[in-house]
Specification:
The protein is mainly alpha-helical. The chain has helices at residues 25-33, 52-64, 73-89, 95-98; strands at residues 12-16, 38-42.
Length: 102
């Protein structure tokens, strides 16, 4: 049964991530009961290779933190800040990371 705030002849669209509990048989069965009024969409599977932010963060970590030891959190932050400042001064270093993969 749909809640009281549902308007007649209006369809509810529910967009969910790919959490395992969203795909359980009892959940799918629950949604199937109101197919006429409710349509469920699952977001695509997470693909970090297609996310420019993930590629940029990977580059930043590789340049700042890989194979390095930091005695303090402040030293780690300083290394990250230096790398980010370098990216700001030389954006051509990351240009290839930001172009779409398609």
């Amino acid at each position: 049964m749909l809640p009281h705030y549902y308007r007649r002849r209006h369809r509810v669209y529910l967009i969910q991530d790919n959490a395992s509990y969203h795909k359980k048989p009892e959940v799918l069965e629950f949604f199937a009961k109101d197919e006429r009024h409710l349509q469920v969409f699952l977001l695509p599977v997470y693909a970090p290779d297609f996310n420019a932010t993930e590629r940029l963060w990977h580059y930043t970590r590789k340049e700042s933190t890989h194979n390095r030891h930091f005695d303090t959190p402040a030293a780690l932050c300083q290394s990250l800040f230096i790398t980010i400042a370098d990216i700001q001064k030389h954006p051509e270093k990351i240009q290839g990371l930001l172009t779409p993969c398609f």
